[in-house]
Design goal:
It holds the Pfam family Cupin_8. By secondary structure, the chain is mainly β. The chain has no helices and four strands. The strands form two sheets. It has a two-stranded antiparallel ribbon with strand order 1-4. Strands 2-3 form a two-stranded antiparallel sheet. A hairpin with a 2-residue loop joins strand 2 and strand 3. It is globular and about 40 Å long. The relative contact order is 0.30.
Length: 73
């Protein structure tokens, strides 16, 4: 994707493979056991900014553990 673009927090039902060919991509994953804290609406989270979630609007989101990695070629 383009530099600085953040895709919405979502989950995929099907298996996926993510490959980085050029540049770097930050990926943040959450355990399926944390879905109760993710404010899911269908396959998307209502928390749009996972780096700065509103603690008043999404207090339980802070309980979800983030697993972060940087993908490189």
């Amino acid at each position: 994707g383009s530099c600085g673009v953040q895709i919405w927090t979502h989950y995929d039902i099907m298996d996926n493979m993510l490959i980085q060919i050029v540049g770097e991509k930050r990926v943040v994953l959450f355990s399926p056991s944390d879905t109760q804290h993710m404010y899911l609406n269908g396959d998307k989270s209502e928390v749009l900014d996972i780096d700065n979630p509103d603690p008043k609007q999404f207090p339980d989101f802070l309980k979800a553990i983030q697993y972060e990695c940087i993908l490189k070629p």
